[in-house]
Amino acid sequence: MDAEDTAADAALFARLRSVWREVDPMPADLVDRMVAAVAVEDLSREYALLTLVESADLAAVRGEADTATLQFSDGETSVLVHVTATESGRRRIDGWVDASALAIRLAQGEREWSADAGEHGRFAFDAVEPGVSRLRLVVRGADGTIHEFQTPQFEV
Fold first, then answer.
1. What is the DSSP track for 56-107?
2. Which residues contact 154 (CB under 8 A, 6 or more apart)?
3. 39-68 residue pLDDT tens
4. d(CA 90, CA 104)
5. Quick check: 154 and 119 in contact, CB under 8 A?
6. What is the distance between the alpha carbons of residues 6 and 1, in angstroms, rounded to a whole number?
7. What pTM was estimated for this model as a whole?
8. Structure confidence by residue, pLDDT tens digits, 132-153
9. What are the percentages of helix, strand and coil residues in the chain, rounded to 5?
10. Is 93 exposed, middle or buried (0-12, 13-18, 19+ CB in 10 A)?
11. Distance between CA 72 and CA 149 in Å, rounded?
12. Measured in whole angstroms, how far is the alpha carbon of residue 88 from the centre of its chain?
């Protein structure tokens, strides 16, 4: 392909663009609508992953800020997390995963805690600082494949 062919192709594409701009112009707000649609889709995905389970029994005994139970799922793996405030002001996190967990990490910014899943998928983190957190698990699926499961951020 020589310079003449390249110039001819560029001219042809320019003419095609101008025809499409006249016949079917792009809506003026298309870019803004697409950005909004992508943002809403991401929020919908995170909302679907995170379900807050409130316990009326615990709320009657303790203040609502003392405990929270969260459930995360991606359709293949489910994780249940119970966060409890300790007397020291830190948090204890008890969790259960329904898949074979090879690694479990709790991340808060640059800090990270590791835990092992015991029998029946139970794990725990002690003395966790309050703050925005995220769980990262490496799990073996029912079909034997290994994948990473990551929760949306949540407050402990």
1. HHHHHHS-TTTEEEEEEE-SS-EEEEEEEE-TTS-EEEEEEESSEEEEEEEE
2. 50, 70, 81, 132, 133, 134
3. 666 555 555 555 444 443 444 444 445 788
4. 20
5. no
6. 7
7. 0.58
8. 999 999 998 878 899 999 999 9
9. 30, 40, 30
10. buried
11. 10
12. 29
**CA–CA separation, 10 and 26 (whole Å):** 21
**Long-range Cβ contacts of 41-47 (<8 Å, 24+ apart):** 46/152
Furthest CA-CA distance within the chain: 82
- Quickly count: other Cβ atoms within 10 Å of residue 156's Cβ: 21
Nearest-angstrom CA–CA distance, 102 and 63: 35
3-class SS of residue 134: strand
Residues 6+ apart with CB under 8 A from 15: none
**Cα separation of 36 and 40, whole Å?**
6
Spell out the residues 6+ positions from residue 8 whose beta carbon is closer than 8 angstroms to its own.
none
Provide φ and ψ at 30, rounded to 5°: -60, -45
Token representation of residue 27: 């809506």
